[in-house]
Amino acid sequence: MSGQGVALGWLPLVQDLLAGGQLVSLADAPVTTPRGYFLVLRESTRLTGVIGRFRRWAREVCANAPQEQGGAGGTSAIG
Q1: Which domain of life is it from (predicted)?
Q2: 36 within 8 A of 72, measured Cβ to Cβ
């Protein structure tokens, strides 16, 4: 699908594709947003198995994301 469109991506998830040349950035600076990410579950949901692993992964990615002016990197509402 080379040259077939435009994609928006979260830098921690697409940086390897950018580095490998599979994706090309359209701008010199990333677009940031003050919005965050939320994981919403029923109170009865147990944080085990796939859900628990996803929650741990998401918290780790958010904690390790570089903070940018006006961006949500480094902050997380994933409890």
Answers
A1: Bacteria
A2: yes
Cα 27 → chain centroid: 18
pLDDT digit string, tens, across residues 26-48: 888 877 777 777 888 888 988 88
CA–CA distance, 26 with 19 (Å, rounded to integer): 14
Q: How far apart are CA 61 and CA 12, in angstroms?
A: 7
Q: Does residue 37 contact residue 76 with C-beta atoms inside 8 Å? A: yes
State the DSSP string of 9-73: --HHHHHHHHHTTSS--SSSS----S--------TT----HHHHHHHHHHHHHHHHSPP-TT--T
The pLDDT, as a whole number, for residue 27 is 81
Residue 15, pLDDT > 80, answer yes
